[in-house]
Amino acid sequence: MKYLAITSLEEFERHRDQWDALYHADPVAHLFLSSEWLKAHLAILPHEWTIHVLADGDTFVGALATATRAVPHRLLPIAREVRFATDPFAEYQGMLARPARESEVVAELAAVLKSAAWQWMKLRDVRDARVADMVERLAAAEHVRLRRGPATTSYQIDLPNTYDALLERHSKPTRRALRRGLKMMHAELPNFRITRAPDGDADRHIETVVGLNSARWHTSTLRRARLIALYRNAYREGIARFIVLWDGTRPISGGAALIDPVTSTFGFALVAHDDEYARMSPGKAVFALFLQDAIELGYRTFDFLRGEGGYKPPFATRTSASFAFELVRSGVRGAALQALSPAYDVAKKAIVRVAMRAR
């Protein structure tokens, strides 16, 4: 196998057919390793990134995308940190490998990362046992310490052929709860309406959905701008859909879905609502509408993606686990970073709180 480092979108685009062939060949692949998602996300990434590719001739055999940045901040560059290139916006992380070559790919990628210049490696939201194997190889290297984070659970629904068939799986109170919000809004709001993109103005839907989400969770202006840019890119790549519920011109609730025809997965990525309409359960109404859309479009899996929301387990037919790994190389820089990081994180959160109150 030969090693290829892809470091620009132009170069990635030239190899897109090879990437897509690898993606189709890997039974563990998921949307956040697709060329569409990578192109959408890498275009907004402010850090240096590399897609590490292993190939036989023109055939891609394995691949892993990482980003490197100065930490704890570019103005205070104590050390170099490696993360997945699509952290933090990808819901799941992993690598790609052809099934017959997995062991070889894991060993080669571990060797590539071992030879790279970094003091800290944070690999979060890992839903790929092969990454765990790669981490173990790195941890076995001299002067590398491994810490494992707790597992997190994600929920998925195996979709039937009709929405009525899905409702029949659940109790009468659950069916009533799914219908309740839309029924109330239609009855009580004379100017109630539902819009969707790709049917409507995509930019307006994206700004509305991200705006509702940012207001509800008090996210920073920078994160909001990046989310808008990311979802615009994802929409242009054909992997994003949006729903907004309106009371006239006022948005009640909105959601974003990320879709993957290759794995037939419909991902429930983002949802938020205006608290003044909370009694109408507008978030659950968006969920119900996306469920209907997923079934009508022929998707086989509805994925709640990252997060253990209380309403998710009763609907799920199966679950998946994600893991986190942290590797630290010994040395002055690594020790200094570990000593400084807790204080830096506290100061950063305090600054964000002050900024949010100012808004």
Short description:
By secondary structure, the protein is of the alpha+beta class. It has helices spanning 9-14, 16-25, 35-42, 102-114, 129-139, 163-167, 172-188, 202-217, 221-236, 282-296, 332-358; strands at residues 2-6, 48-56, 59-73, 76-84, 96-97, 120-126, 144-148, 152-158, 192-197, 240-247, 250-260, 265-273, 301-303, 318-329.
Characterise this structure.
With 359 residues, the protein is an alpha+beta fold. Helices cover 40% and strands 30% of the residues. It has helices at 9-14, 16-25, 35-42, 102-114, 129-139, 163-167, 172-188, 202-217, 221-236, 282-296, 332-358, and strands at 2-6, 48-56, 59-73, 76-84, 96-97, 120-126, 144-148, 152-158, 192-197, 240-247, 250-260, 265-273, 301-303, 318-329. Strands 1, 2, 3, 4, 5, 6, 7, 8, 9, 10, 11, 12, 13 and 14 form a 14-stranded mixed β-sheet that branches. Strand 3 (59-73) and strand 4 form a beta hairpin. The protein is globular. The chain starts with a strand and ends with a helix. The model is unreliable at 344-359 (pLDDT under 50).
Which shape, going by the Cα principal axes? globular
Radius of gyration: 22 Å
Mean pLDDT level: 91
Q: Work out the number of β strands.
A: 14
Instruction: Please provide the ordered H/E string of secondary-structure elements.
Output: EHHHEEEEHEHEEHHEHHEEEHEEH
Structural class: alpha+beta
Helix content: 40-55%
Q: Give the count of helical stretches.
A: 11
Strand content: 25-35%
For the largest beta-sheet, the strand count, sense and barrel status come to:
14 strands, mixed
Distance between the termini: 53 Å
